[in-house]
């Protein structure tokens, strides 16, 4: 039974000055880092998580949500102005945003991106708030057998959808699981794969692994690719006409169906684990272009192109939290980072979250809605400032980010051992990325590994030691059947997807997943 | 044209998976009696998955091309600097090492402007020190 007093109390919690201040701070920081090519919200979130230790759960999570939402808005700025997306999600935005900026309308393009982003984001947040509680009630009916089957299904979907081949996806998932087994085994409490390092008795610390693989490895990659004297791209000037600096209501309203389509695509794809906002942006762009009466104007500065991509990639953010909050399964790297922040603050994502900490969950929903309004307000005021940010030197940004990672991981793991582990996983992440293995699959599997093993042990006990007794659970059988079907489907569709990727203008070696970093 | 990259990484995972199965797991994972799930079961499963998928990747590689050797050499140089700085931090602490680390990294990237070098060497470590020790009241690494 839904308790409206808890829902109201949760929403009211957000309106305390301290919580609002952290949402504002998160959005400002997110827009700032999103505007810097090379940092992006994922890296910013990874770095920021350890610094939220001293905060109460709601301001900490609200701050991180603000960083993420702000980052998606900020990511469009360098995409539009320099044809250099600050985030991979914004790559599709550059296809029409940059030509529009070249026509002397950079502010019009960035404002359309801002309005579209907030429209899509708000749409998916409303869906999240509406469906997550009923889904959680449904999820509560699942036992360990169904949980194991659900995780197998999630692994099959994530491995198939992310990365460039199913085989590589499975390898990345297996590696993530393998490293999650380091430490004490959940049933007998004996040490596993610690190689005499008793610091590993409690397992590999999530902040060390996540920050090493997502932040440091990305910084290493970017630094290794940077060539001395490399230009940052040409910033464009505007025409000076007022109508070229703003988006009129008529222009926004003309894009309403495009925005709705993008938001719907983003919400549906975001709710499915493993697809990601980059795929949503490109899919929405392709469908809008196909539905347009003037497809030839796309890629030449069409506002519908910007509206399609930004509404879709931002809609993924809210929808990503649906599997996370209802099932405890992170569907993307951003969700994996949010889940680690949840755990740091004593929250266990999953169906019981609504029962045990309902007020906090609705506080989070309130913070998400507030973050959207603040995103609009900060974006309106800050767009001119973020334009300056895109020209900040990478050397200072990367050096600063490295120092922050060192300090953050040291604080999270109580010493330099965690920092050393972080560096090892940074090297590992760099190699995985270079050889085409998805870091996102690795991180999600690393996170789910302990729960998977624990649920499997419980399931074996419930099935009297014989996994073949699984037929007693029709839900589990159905999920396992779906897993097998999805593997075959991905194998048969892989070649077609590769062809579609090429047609959509995605560079060689990149895929339509949220592969970055 | 299929690249050699996947064949190389596939061969690595084939050998790695087999080494895990036959050498590492028996040596470094205990096998206590009783219980529903042995501590070795899941590591064994993942080792087999790695070996089988590594073999499959050798047989059916994708078109993925790895970066050139120069990229890896540059990355290795940065890793050496970062590793050295972690060791130095264990000896003298973050406060003394961080400006030197920032300077080396910025010079390696190619930054030569004194103002920006000053920002990285002085302003950022000072800001981090203030944030961590004064505002958050936590210790710096080292």
From TrEMBL, chain A:
Pfam families: TctA (PF01970). The keyword Transmembrane applies. Residues 20-443 form the DUF112 domain. Keywords: Membrane, Transmembrane, Transmembrane helix. The chain crosses the membrane at residues 6-30, 42-65, 122-140, 147-180, 200-220, 265-287, 321-344, 360-379, 385-409, 421-448, 468-491. The keyword Transmembrane helix applies. Coiled coil: none annotated. Signal peptide: none annotated. This is Putative tricarboxylic transport membrane protein.
TrEMBL record, chain B:
It holds the Pfam family TctB. The keyword Transmembrane helix applies. Keywords: Membrane, Transmembrane, Transmembrane helix. It comes from the Bacteria. The chain crosses the membrane at residues 12-29, 41-59, 71-88, 115-136. InterPro entries: DUF1468. Residues 8-141 form the DUF1468 domain. This is Putative tricarboxylic transport membrane protein. It comes from Poseidonocella sedimentorum.
